[in-house]
Structure formats: C-alpha cells, structure tokens
Amino acid sequence: MTLPRQVLPNSTVLVTRRALRRHQLFAPDKVLCKYYLYTLGLCARHHGILIHAVVLMSTHEHLVLTDTRGALPDFMRDFHRLVALGTKILRKWEGAVWDHERPSVVRLLTAEAIIEKIAYCIVIPIAAGLVRHAKQWPGVTTDVGALAGRTVRIKRPAVYYASSNPDWPEEIELSLTLPPALLCGRTRDEVRLIIGQEQARQEKIARRDAPHSKANA
After folding, report:
1. pTM of this prediction?
2. What is the DSSP string of 44-73?
3. Is residue 55 within 8 Å of 61, Cβ to Cβ?
4. Contact at 8 Å (CB) between 32 and 57?
5. Which residues contact 141 (CB under 8 A, 6 or more apart)?
6. Pairing verdict, β 60-67 and 11-18
7. How many Å apart are CA 14 and CA 144, to the nearest integer?
8. Mean pLDDT, the chain, as a whole number?
9. Sheet order of strands, 104-107 included
C-alpha cells in the first residue's frame, strides 16, 4: 500500500515525471513547447502554483515550484492530464503518455536544496550529453537570468484548446519567480547570483561526466 503524501501550503518541491517506457514523446519542437508552456501557465494560475524552474526533456520533465494553497495534487492531475491530451494529438499517439508510476515529489526543506535543484533543472541537458551549454537546449528550459525578471506571454495553441471555452484564454502569462524561502535576507540579484554560481559548479561536473550516448535524454 502506498502511503499518502503530505501536502502543505507554501511547500517548495521538485516534481519529476517520465513518459511511458521513456518514449521520446516530448522531443522538442515549437508546437509542443508552446502547448506545454501554455498548459503550465494555465494550471499554475488556476491552482496558485509559483514556478521557479522547468525543463522538458524528450522523455521526462522536472519542475521546481511552490504550492501556495496546498493544491499540488489538483495541479498535477490537471496539468499532466492536459499535457497528455495535447501530446497524443501532436504525436498521433494512442494509449498512455505518462509512466504508470506516480510523479516523484521531493520537498525542498532548505535554501541550499532549493538552489541545488533549480540549478539541476538548468543543467540537465548538459548532463545528458545533448548540449555543451544549457541555453543551447531547444526545448522548454530555464535561464537563471530570467528568474524573477521575465514574463512570457503564450498564445492559446491551436491544438486541443477550443477558442469557445472561456476557461482557456487567448493568452496566458507565465512568470518564473524566485522561491520565497530564498528571499529572506537576500535581494533578488543576490539570489540569482547564488543560483548562477551553483549552475556553474554543476555545469563543470556535467561536462566532465556527460555520457557520449544521447539515449537517456
């Protein structure tokens, strides 16, 4: 029997979920990336979720977020359902999109853990041996320079979302925010600098250890 997860308002967590049998259903292209980001913005707004870092690899996703309302299970249910529905259309895929295992949710209890996982999300494409620099990943990714400083406006995709549904606005705003826990006694610039330093440290290790094979992207 699987034990229930503890869901607490204002918890910052790392969410990881994989595609079924690691099929490359999320291989990056502009249409899929737009659909994913619109869906993320839509569900984050609806459930009071703050997004701090996100990376969508070909076979899995990582998100660092803060659940302001204790609504994380509802967010993940809606978000993963909508991502699956759009992916099935885009990839002409029948059957399940996500792995049958529950998403991994790791609570980040310290500032150090939050910083490490945000940097981890940024560096993942390098660690997988796919790019030399994080910004080169063509899929959904996070730029530390955009944290708490950039709002992306995503037009409603033509895929799945009907313009006649008032719950699906023509445009969604998605902002990457800094975790509240990191702003205690620090300025935004200081937090970005600390995350950037951790990113640089992880990039050095990732380039050293990156596999020659790209099979695990």
Report:
1. 0.93
2. HHHHTEEEEEEEE-SSEEEEEEEESSS-HH
3. yes
4. no
5. 54, 55, 56, 121, 122, 125, 134, 135
6. antiparallel
7. 17
8. 93
9. 49-56, 60-67, 11-18, 104-107
